[in-house]
Design brief:
Blueprint (H helix, E strand, L loop, with lengths): L1 H9 L2 E15 L12 E14 L2 H11 L3 H7 L10
Antiparallel strand pairs: 1-2
Helix pairs in contact: 1-2
Length: 86
């Protein structure tokens, strides 16, 4: 949604965005790029398909926008959950 809104605002010829996600749990020892060494962690692999007449600079900018969308930022920051009984 964020990619499409940005492209519309810039009046770029983006026709369609398709995002495919794969979710898995991996052992932290098996993840060379992981910052944590907790037993397991969540791994989300994302494929983004951009359909339309876009040059490489536009495609790179849309990928950067995807990495700054509110959902992506929420999922990639460290979280703390507090629970209270109501």
């Amino acid at each position: 949604m964020t990619i499409a809104m940005y492209a519309r605002r810039k009046q770029w010829a983006l026709e369609r965005v398709t995002v495919r996600l794969r979710h898995s749990r991996v052992h932290a020892d098996d993840c060379a790029a992981c910052e944590t060494r907790v037993a397991t962690l969540t791994l989300i692999e994302r494929d983004i398909e951009l359909v339309g007449v876009l040059d490489e600079e536009q495609r790179a900018r849309l990928l950067a926008i995807a990495n700054r969308c509110p959902v992506h930022l929420t999922l990639t920051t460290q979280m703390h959950i507090t629970t209270t009984l109501a």
